[in-house]
Each structure stands twice: as C-alpha cells, then as structure tokens.
Amino acid sequence: MPPNFERIRTALLCQGEPDRVPLAEASIDQGIKEAVLGRPIRTARDEVDFWAEAGYDFVPVHTGLRLMTAYGLTGEKEVQSERQRLLWSNRRVGHARYGVASDAELRRDWAEEGKGIITTRAELEAFPWPAPEEFDAADLFAEIAAALRPGMKIIAYQGHIFTPVWQMMGFETFCFALRDDPALVEALFERIGQIQYEIFRRAIGFPQVAGAWWPDDIAYTEGLMIAPHYFRRYLFPWLKRMGEDCAARGIPWIFHSDGDVSEVLEDLIGCGFNALHPIENKAMDIVALKQRVAGRLCLMGNLDLAYPLSLGTPEEVAAAVKRLLREVAPGGGFCLGSGNSVPEYVPLANYQAMRQTALEYGRYPISL
Questions:
Q1: In a domain, 100, yes or no
Q2: What domain count does the chain have?
Q3: What is the pLDDT of residues 147-199, one digit of tens each?
Q4: Spatial separation of the C-alpha atoms in residues 190 and 65, rounded to whole Å
C-alpha cells in the first residue's frame, strides 16, 4: 500500500480502524535504514524514500533544544552545529543531516546524577541560553517536504522540558531543590519551557507538518521519577499550552515517555495528547491499558526492545507482532512499533520481521 497519512491520523485520533495498522518509529539506526533502502542515505530524497518504502506514512523530523550536550571541566558549553542538534545523543556522530554516517564512531552521553552546572540562580542567569531562532529548522523541513511522496506528511519530533531541567541541575541536586529551593526549580522550568514552547510553535507552523511528537521521559519502570504534583505544577501547564496549539491546528499530538506513566495518564489526556508512546513492555500492560483508554488515547509501540526485538529470533519477533495485532489492534487506536526506538544493536532480520509481519497481517479487520 502506498503511504497515506490519513491512515496514521485515523489511528492517532482514535477515529476507528484505518485500512491497516500503521507503523510508527521516531528513530531508526542509520545503518539499518541504509540496509533496508539498499543505498546510503545522503539526501532528503534518500531519507524520504526509506520511510516510504519501509511502510511508514510520515517522516519524523527532529528539532529543538535538548541540552544533553557534554560539558568540559571548565563548565563551558560544547558548541554544536544545527545538524548535530537534530540528532539523538545516542546516535553515531557523523556528517549527514538526515542521519549518521554508518562508519562513524558510536557515542553515548550520560547525564550528571549528582551536581550539575546550574545549582544557583546566579548560575542560571550566567548560562549562555540559546535563542529559539537558533533552532530554526525551516530549511530542513522544506527539504524534506519537497521530497515527500504523495500521501506523506512530516511529524515534528521536538521535546524535553523536565529532562533538561534535572540534567542541568544534576538529579540529586534537583530533587533536594524541589524541597529546599522551589523558586530555582520554577525559574529553570520557566526558562527552558519558554525556549521549547517558541521552538514548538515554529515547528508546528510549517505547512507540511501534520503531527507533533513530544518526548520527555518522566518515569522509571516502576513509576514516576518524582511525585505527580510536581509535574502538575511545573511541566503540565506547558504541555497543555502546546496541546491547545495542536488542537487549534487540527494536528495529532503524541507523548513519549519510557516507564510507567499510569499515575498521570488522565493528566496527559487533559494536556491534549492524542497518543502515548512507547508503552514499555516491562512497565505497562498494553492490553489492560487499551481497555482503560480505548477511544481516548491511541497506543503506540510496545514490541519489547530487549526481547524479542534485540535478543530474539525473527520468528519470535513475528509471533510477538501477531499477538499485538490480535490483542490490541482491533477497534483502531494502535500504531505498531518498537518499545522505544530501533538502535544499532537490533538485528536487521528482527527489524524486518517486525515491519513485514505488521504489513502482512495488520490489515483490518484483523483475522489472526
């Protein structure tokens, strides 16, 4: 079937069953993409061709502030180009704007757990905060839009307010500050939230952007990282503003967080989110969740990244996909994909099994 954004839009907005279960990923390793496509990805056309030929109805375009850069011992901010900002911090660092060179060195960044670079109001004011216009990705959106195949659209992938707040403070410092210095916490949420909100408004204003995907990990496997009332005070008001902007434009809005977000599920729906990703298998029961939110929230992902996607066989991946199609897909409101992303350690055969099984058996009505 050719790409058709109405397919995934129908699923995301819980408007019934489209012709088949849509595939959805926000991030796929460059080497895997190039292997599936059969050639290097060097241009916008190459990038679009992968997503179209692999069975997706959209191209995710990453933009925005994440503040997960490395810092030297002097505390000076690492200078990054706009191309680097568009990459996930755990991707391979390479030359390509649309992905990463497959022969480049693998880099993984880790956040400071103890004391970060902003622990006082003076440090907050002295930090060289970027202006939202520095993250203007209009050229990238235009290049991808010009290469889109008929029926395809862009989903803007931009997020993180809570994550950069605690990472810049260091998680321990952040937790103590919630009690001892709430004014500093509030000021940091305000500073980062305003920057991210302005970037978000720019991104969803681009004509070919037909959806928005907001990542911001707020939970562990066992539950929320901090008490829910802090999210309700500092984070959710920003997300509600963004949700209102998406609703005004009539575009679906997706929330990504690893872990178990059950405790704030109604809050997320109240913020205007139409879909939840990735329903991490070890954290949330997707069948029970579907019963709870059917018709109100589309569920995305859930195929466990560790097993079977990384450590299982293609046959085991196919069996897990069929189970999800059988138990979760009926009625719509479901997009199939990994329980996080598709990093470099996922075997190509397993990724192909996930994708091809969904395409073969995911046609409505589901008859497995």
A1: yes
A2: 1
A3: 999 999 999 999 999 999 999 999 999 999 999 999 999 999 999 999 999 99
A4: 14
